[in-house]
């Protein structure tokens, strides 16, 4: 894995996001779909921008 702190933070947020989605699913929360959609889009954008800006430095 890259030593870039942004990518490390995104990796940690992705793990945390998966745990939150799992917890919300176990609790049968009605807002699960909304939380999953918003979080997925935000994390996807984060990974896309992290990959886009780190390509020239690798």
Structure report:
- The chain is an all-alpha fold.
- Helix content is 78%, strand content 0%.
- The radius of gyration is 14 Å and the shape is elongated.
- The protein starts with a helix and ends with a helix.
- The model has no long low-confidence stretch (mean pLDDT 88).
Map the helices and strands:
Elements: H1 5-26, H2 32-54
Keywords:
about 60 residues; mainly alpha; 2 helices; about 0% strand; elongated
| Overall mean pLDDT | 88
Query: N-to-C terminal Cα separation, in Å?
Result: 12 Å
C-alpha geometry: elongated
What count of helical segments does DSSP give? Answer: 2
Strand content: under 5%
**What are the low-pLDDT stretches, counting only 5+ consecutive residues below 50?**
none
Number of strands: 0
The SSE string, one letter per element, is: HH
**Helix fraction by DSSP (H/I, runs of at least 4):** over 70%
Secondary structural class = mainly alpha
Major beta sheet, specifics? none
Gyration radius (Cα, Å) is 14 Å
Keywords: Membrane, Transmembrane, Transmembrane helix
Transmembrane segments: 7-25, 31-50
